Amino acid sequence: GESVGLHLPTLSVQEGDNSIINCAYSNSASDYFIWYKQESGKGPQFIIDIRSNMDKRQGQRVTVLLNKTVKHLSLQIAATQPGDSAVYFCAEKPLDLWSEGSNYKLTFGKGTLLTVNP
Amino acid sequence: DGGITQSPKYLFRKEGQNVTLSCEQNLNHDAMYWYRQDPGQGLRLIYYSQIVNDFQKGDIAEGYSVSREKKESFPLTVTSAQKNPTAFYLCASSMVGRKDRSYNEQFFGPGTRLTVL
What we know:
The complex is a heterodimer.
Chain A: E1 4-5, E2 10-14, E3 19-25, E4 30-38, E5 45-51, E6 56-58, E7 62-67, E8 72-77, E9 86-94, E10 107-108, E11 112-117
Parallel strand pairs in A: 2-11
Antiparallel strand pairs in A: 1-3, 3-8, 4-5, 4-9, 6-7, 7-8, 9-10, 9-11
Chain B: E1 4-7, E2 10-13, E3 19-25, E4 31-37, E5 43-51, E6 54-57, E7 64-66, E8 76-78, E9 87-94, E10 107-108, E11 112-116
Parallel strand pairs in B: 2-11
Antiparallel strand pairs in B: 1-3, 3-8, 4-5, 4-9, 5-6, 7-8, 9-10, 9-11
């Protein structure tokens, strides 16, 4: 079935380096994507989102890139800090014009654990 | 402050007991969701509700039940029929938009960790 997945389960970087977290999705009908950050023992926090009519969106120290041709999503974190250490999830929402219920459901990937070394 | 609260933070249950996890939101969101998270796994949808007095099963609804009597509240009951209930449970809420343009970020609560003894 359709699913959202991640290329790498863990990523270790040095403080100050840039981090890139990748996500592959298989549902070509997805029209909205979100990146969440989850610290240990806490609920996920929204980082940044992107709509399928865009290929890049920037936030504070973060950039999300969307390549619809290869169905790939990435999160770039600039100047990674120890406080960025967490699990990062991508999530997708499929566009379904015919089913009211599925319009509100997100499909989550398994997550990538980012560790920032001082 | 607006947000989502879940209680308790930690919950211990004996086998054969039903337990209810609380989720409250003051964001005026119409939609609410319950997810289960196991170690090293992504979030799996248990139940969701788009409007008061209505809810739908998610991907892993067996052994769980919910109610949506108020817009602000979406309690989850883990019944004795749930074979492996030990997990981290997350509640979320979102706005509900037009069917073809609903870019609905979900806001999450802090979670409840349930352990079966």
